[in-house]
TrEMBL record:
<dbReference type="InterPro" id="IPR002871">
    <property type="entry name" value="NIF_FeS_clus_asmbl_NifU_N"/>
</dbReference>
<dbReference type="Pfam" id="PF01592">
    <property type="entry name" value="NifU_N"/>
</dbReference>
<feature type="domain" description="NIF system FeS cluster assembly NifU N-terminal">
    <location>
        <begin position="6"/>
        <end position="126"/>
    </location>
</feature>
<dbReference type="GO" id="GO:0016226">
    <property type="term" value="P:iron-sulfur cluster assembly"/>
</dbReference>
<dbReference type="GO" id="GO:0005506">
    <property type="term" value="F:iron ion binding"/>
</dbReference>
<dbReference type="GO" id="GO:0051536">
    <property type="term" value="F:iron-sulfur cluster binding"/>
</dbReference>
<protein>
    <submittedName>
        <fullName>Nitrogen fixation protein NifU</fullName>
    </submittedName>
</protein>
Length: 130
């Protein structure tokens, strides 16, 4: 595999992903993508006092998909739900010191799965996202 197109941070998050794994009794689960036809990501969150206290992920995808999923969890952990909802795919790519243009779509997995997990939390707790 040729890693020359990736930054050191991308390689680091691919080789040593943070917060990887499923979660028992999550407060919210978000999925984005389709495992049958490409990259897919599941994000699990536990929330306390409106703050993402725990977050983890399972991903099916390439180097960039793993790295962006890992970075998404790093960026969201400890944030309020409102702050986490503001994390964009560009924030994720920037935190990794950039992605090749043909891999930028992988950062969309993280941003959208995170939003879906927060929306799921709001549904489960009968709240409305702001």
């Amino acid at each position: 595999m040729n890693y020359d197109e990736f930054t050191d941070k991308v390689i680091d998050h691919f080789m040593c992903p943070r917060n990887v794994g499923s979660m028992i009794n999550p407060d919210g689960v978000g999925r984005f993508g389709e495992p049958g036809c490409g990259d897919s990501l599941d994000i699990y969150i536990k929330v306390k006092d409106n703050v993402i206290e725990e977050i983890s992920f399972l991903v099916f995808g390439c180097v960039a998909a793993v790295a962006t999923s890992s970075m998404t969890t790093v960026l969201a952990k400890g944030k309020t739900l409102e702050e986490a909802l503001k994390i964009t795919n560009h924030d994720i790519a920037d935190a990794l010191d950039g992605l090749p243009e043909n891999k930028l779509h992988c950062s969309v997995l993280g941003a959208n799965a995170l939003k879906n997990a927060i929306d799921d939390y709001y549904r489960r707790t009968s709240q409305v996202s702001e």
